[in-house]
Structures are given as C-alpha cells and as structure tokens.
Amino acid sequence: MARIRKAVPGVDPKLLVKDAAKLLPDPARRAFLRGGMSLGALAFLAGCDIVDGPSAESALSKISFFNDRVQAWIFGLNRLAPTYPESAITRPFPFNAYYTEDEAPEVEGDTYKLKVGGLVQEKKSWPLSELYALPQEKQITRHVCVEGWSAIGSWTGARLSDFLQRIGADTKAKYVNFICAEGYSTSIDMPTALHPQTQMTFRFADEILPRAYGYPMKIRIPTKLGFKNPKYVTEMYVTNDYPGGYWEDQGYNWFSGL
Amino acid sequence: MTSAVAANRKPKVIHPLWVRITHWLNALAMIVMIGSGWQIYNASPIFGFTFPRSITLGGWLAGGIMWHFAAMWLLVVNGLVYLTLGIISGRFRRKLFPIRTHELARDIGDALRFRLTHDDLSVYNAVQRLLYLGVILAGVVIVLSGLSIWKPIQLQELTALFGGYESARVVHFLAMAAIAGFLAVHVLLALIVPKSLRAMITGR
Fold this sequence. Notes:
- The complex is a heterodimer of chains A (258) and B (204).
- With 258 residues, chain A is an alpha+beta fold.
- Chain A folds into two domains: 13-74, no CATH class; 86-250, Alpha-Beta Complex (Sulfite Oxidase, Chain A, domain 2), CATH 3.90.420.
- Helix content of chain A is 21%, strand content 22%.
- Chain A starts with 35 loop residues before the first helix and ends in a 19-residue tail after the last strand.
- In chain A, 40% of the residues are buried.
- The model of chain A is unreliable at 1-50 (pLDDT under 50).
- Chain B is mostly helical.
- Chain B has nine helices and no strands.
- Chain B has helices at residues 2-9, 17-43, 61-88, 91-96, 101-112, 126-150, 156-161, 165-192, 194-202.
- In chain B, helix 6 (126-150) packs antiparallel against helix 8 (165-192).
- The radius of gyration of chain B is 19 Å and the shape is globular.
- The chains are: A alpha+beta (258), B mainly alpha (204).
C-alpha cells in the first residue's frame, strides 16, 4: 500500500492511508451509488431518477439530518454508558485514525495551550498544568467505532460539563466544536457536551495519555461513535452555527450517538 | 354468503392489496439493507471474509451507512404495517397455522423429491408455513439486534438481551444470513412456479 509521508499530518485526503480499502477513498467517492445492486435492483424497483448520483446523495443527506434529530430526541442526558471492570479492558487498545500511528501528531506538552472561544465568558487559553488541576474521574467504557468493532478502555479526566460551567459557556448554545493538532475536527450537540460521562481526558489506563491515544488531551464521549471522540484537541469553541467535522463533511452521520 | 357469491364471479383473491404492497416495499427495503449492510460489514469483518465490492451498496462505508439508516425507516414502518394487518386481519392465523409435525415431515420429504405441488396458491403447505413464519421471526430479530447495535447505550437493556454489543453484531449477521438464504430459495421457487409470482403482483 502506497504511503504518502508528511512532516505534519494534515487533512490532505491523500493521507487516507490505513483505511484506504474500507473507508473508501476520494476518487471513488463518486462511486457512492454504484455497485451492481444499486443500478440493477434499485433501478428496477425504485425508478431510475432515484439512482441518479447527486439527487440520491442529497436525499440521503436529508435523511441523515433527519436521523440527527431523531437521535437527539432519543438521547438521554442521564442515560449512562455501561462501565466495566479493569479486567475487561482491551489490551492493547487499538490505534485508529486516517493516518498511521507513526504519523500521529507530536504535541509539545510544555508549550501546549487549549484555546477556548466562541460563546463563553472566559476566553483564555489553558496550559496543561491548569487543566491537570481540574477535578478528575476515571471511566472504563466501551469505545464503538463507526466501522463496527469495539474496544474497552480506561480514561481519566475532567467532566466537560464542569469545565463549560467554569468558563461560563452559554449552555443554551447548540454546538461545541473541537479542533485538533493535525487539522482534524468534530462537533457535538450541547446535551452530549453536558452528559456526565463526557470527559476532557488526560490519562489512558492510569498513565499520561500516550501520543497514540491523543496526548495531551482527548475528548472522551462514550455515548458517541469513536470518530466523535477527538484526540490532540487544541481548540474548543461554543457556537450556534453548525460546525460539521472532518468525517461528517464527507458523509458520516453527524450525531452518531450510541 | 356474499363472499362466496363474489368468489364465484371472479377468480379468488390470493393476496389482498396490502399484502402485495407491503411485500414489494419489503423486498426493496431488504435489498437495500442487505447490500448496504454488506458494505458496513466489510469495514470490520466479523468472520474471515468480506463481500465482493460489486454486490455491496453505497461505494464506501459512509455511503453504506447512509443507505442503511435511510432504508431502515422503510423496513420498520412497512414491517409494522404488515405485522399489524397480518395479525388483526387473521391472515397469519389462517395461512401460517397450524404447523403440524407430521405434515411438515411429509412436505419436506416431498419437497426434497421435487414432488411438492402448488395446486392451490391460497393454501400454504407445511414447509411454506414454517419458512414464512421463520423469515418473519428473522425479520423481527434483525430489527431488534440492529437497534441494539445502533443504540447500545440508549437501548442498553435490549443490547443486554442479545448478550452485549459484540454478540448483537453476530446475531444481526446471522439473521441477515437466514434472510438471504430464505431469499435465494424464495426467488428460485417463485421463478419455478411463475403463477405464484403473478399472484403477488396481480393478487390472483
């Protein structure tokens, strides 16, 4: 498999290395609707205009946005993800990204600052020492990937809801957006941001978060699929404008709640 | 009796309109669900194989997911209409029951020797009854296990019923395999007995 190296991995779609086969790839994105079945069976059963590429894609996107609303309605703010004993932890815990592990960002802890902005009263940047001083708790929960596999991990950190309170975030706002060191981004709904298990994570399996799992900070959201759990988070802002995200903009369902 | 008089005037209706509509909508939903489900399966295969790309739907994982979570509405809404009407009209009771062991043994024997006849399309033999009932149950299981995978936290009691997230995935796959197996036999037999296909289109 061809590997395109870059000093700092970015959002360049050519970096879709590891998952090239399964999370299919750019040139073939237009093949969205192709494949024997869609043209054969669907043209026969549903009428040709429905399989026309752009209109089908737009109809499917509308249904995906509808599914966002349904999932927001199903979501229970006090519905907790099941927790597991230490013995259930998956070892080694899988690394997963659109780049290989040796291409993962290397963030300098000493100079790191979490930038906080948008609809918050206290717009300051937080060095690691101040973040580490926040009250922390541990959770052992199941990480479910959009690909279907799952793994149980142990994450320790501060409740995002506590942090949002502390910085005077407008918790009536719709979204919290996360931006990461390598250019990755994702955004979540405010109710999920306020969920008691949504965590600003600093430790994995009781050790300072290793580079592979998102040093220095990951957002752990057990109520959402893995790609909604950003690593190497450098910036967080509260907004009412739909921010989308790296995978979401390519067609993954935005809410992706579990 | 009025119904008897009506039956004498024109050929008897084997499949009422609601059966035909829900049947073909279900066929469409199932084909989309299976094709897109294979696409999703390929992203993280449970067993040591993947489905050929040419028979999967959606082009890539996100496309497969979009199709899957669009067609689920058709599958579930149509399925609920079918089950509700099947129960309240008494059609399930009339057509699928009783399934008697000795009839089943006899009909399986006949089927294996290609002697099972379809003289009266309005009466299902024991093998048909068992298969139709079985595929309805597989349909219920595939929806419930699918919900368990989709919402393992919000519907965690349901997921627990399937033994947790990972085993719900396996159950979901096996239910697909059962339905796909049924589909293969069902389509083959409909082609061998074309009047049964006609009945599902025109009702007679």
